[in-house]
Design goal:
heterodimer, A: mainly beta, two-stranded antiparallel sheet, globular, B: Protocatechuate 3,4-Dioxygenase, subunit A
Chain lengths: 228, 238
Amino acid sequence: MTTELANPAPRQDNQDPALFGQTPSQTVGPFFHYGLPWKGGADLVGQSDMGARPELFPEEHYVLNLSPPRGAVAGKTIAVEGVVYDAEGKPVPDAMIEIWQANAAGRYASPDDDRSNLPLDEGFIGFGRAATDENGLYRFKTVRPGSVPGPGNSAQAPHIAVSVFGRGVIKRLVTRIYFEDAVENASDPILALVPAERRDTLVARKIDDAWRFDIVLQGARETVFFDV
Amino acid sequence: MSPLILPYAREDASQPPSLHPGYASTVARSPRQPLVKIPHTLTETTGPAGCWENLMGGALADLTAQHAGTPQGQRIIVSGRVLDEQGRPVPNTVMEIWQANAAGRYIHKKDQWAAPLDPNFTGAGRVVTDAEGRYRYVTVRPGAYPWGNHHNAWRPSHIHLSLLGPAFATRLITQMYFPDDPLIEIDPIANAVPMPYRQRMVSRFDIGTTQANWALGYLFDVVLRGREATPFEDDHDD
């Protein structure tokens, strides 16, 4: 005789084998700042506090990481920044941008990039996260990535993969940052898939000391987003 | 030599459209141009791994033990696995967690509705899956709360979850809901996901996970996009 009762009658839910498959995406919402963007998340090479919005919640509730230490990073340090705009041209102050990129030698700090002939930097992971500020601006400090292999024997131009999240963004939007002065852009196999008249939405321009890359969610000069 | 690329599956029928007018904020924040489909390259099939302490930080698995006192509300244990579409565990991957308190209020300064804050509850944590893809954290059940989407709109109780998985292609941000919550079926955000797939986001109460005289248990597995079995391209030795 058992005194333990079984679970209630099964119903369709997350544990139902008939429903097994990808977990659907949902919006990050407007209140992610105390849970996701840590201090230093947008500084991939230094130890600044870039990326977080600690002014949006009381200091005693900051439980995110604190500017983790970095080792030496090879290559040219760059600043990448831009404003996220909605369909009406209004800045989006509650978006979150993530980047993923290779190091200056063109190698990803990932077990799935096993090209051991290329160096890794002890201090460089290549993943960053930044909340947009009240004016819709995001900023990263990183290194200019090297070229990485593309399909077949092609080479991809230096680029940074970008994920866009935000209130009203129900599923991640994916884009890429290319660099205006890279000669490799002309032969990049991914840019070649983009209608020629829209390619420039993927190309960052050097303005003063920063690479400028605005992200337009909708409307005139809408950024090209990828189905990956 | 180009490395061997094993691409990930594309999104399945459960993924919501970017434009879901019932969720009003999507109208001005979703692209109108078609997405440009691109093959998976090394950029999409790689991602950070084993470096969570140097990114978002190490594990914080008990959201009820971050302050001097015990937070208000129903203590719960949420446990499950992170799997790929083939049912294989995704080990050593990070899951970030954030949520409202038991009264349905976020610690965020822009959340100003008339429910109390709880000085003993932040509502943010992180866990890393073990070798079998398992995770477990302790928190309080978040309350429902009103929002401005339409007249008398209320979000169902939910916990926000953020996962990177093994690759850029597997990135996922989602929300976990609770069984028997009548607000789910009238929530525009949950309903951006077509039925029956919406139910994939509904956790199950589990008496086996429940700890006697301490906390209710809920099960929730997260399924990330899986790697396809055959290479996308030939490996050219030259």
